[in-house]
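WARN retry 2 of 3 for item q-0093 after timeout on previous attempt; input resubmitted unchanged.
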Amino acid sequence: MKQLGKWAWPVVFGSLWGFLEVIGGEAFFKRSIPLPSAWLTAWGLLMLATSRGIIPKAGSSTLAGATAALFKLVNAPPFYCHLLAIVCVGLLFDAAASLIAADKLDRRRGAVIGMVGAYGGHIAFAVLITYVFRYEFWVAEGLPRILRYVVLNGSLAAVLAAVLVPLGFRLGQKAEPAMKRKPRWATAGALAAVAVSWMLGRFVG
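OK item q-0093 returned
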């Protein structure tokens, strides 16, 4: 039960990430918010960091990213490029957190991890969508579009992540002792949060 409770939290925070992708993504584009993917990525990195503060284990952030992508796939029109971007951020954040910090999630390491996750996720997505999956809108512009995307969207996401990721780590670390003291309540809360977020996602989507 204790292990189930801990591994449920990446699903919780991945669902919260996916929920904002569903409701915020469309709203940002409709209102012509500049660089919308950067703001959504920053929120995703905050969710990844909070989850990682609770369960600082390799693979947990990948699980959160996969959950966010699945949430958006189920509850919104299937824009597969968006799903690829979410998965890339989750994977790169996971790799950075595992290699840079292990279980030492202090402010300086958190800022570096956030920036690596932001830039790395943007670079990985842009390269894959252009040269591997060969999505026509990216292929048509090629390298100039990649550079513009990484420099503009990636840089804004990285600046935001340098602040939000250490904050997320700290929030998760502060919550984790309370969950240890009452693991059954923590597990029940995690499962309830997942159920509520998915029900709301279906309603909103």
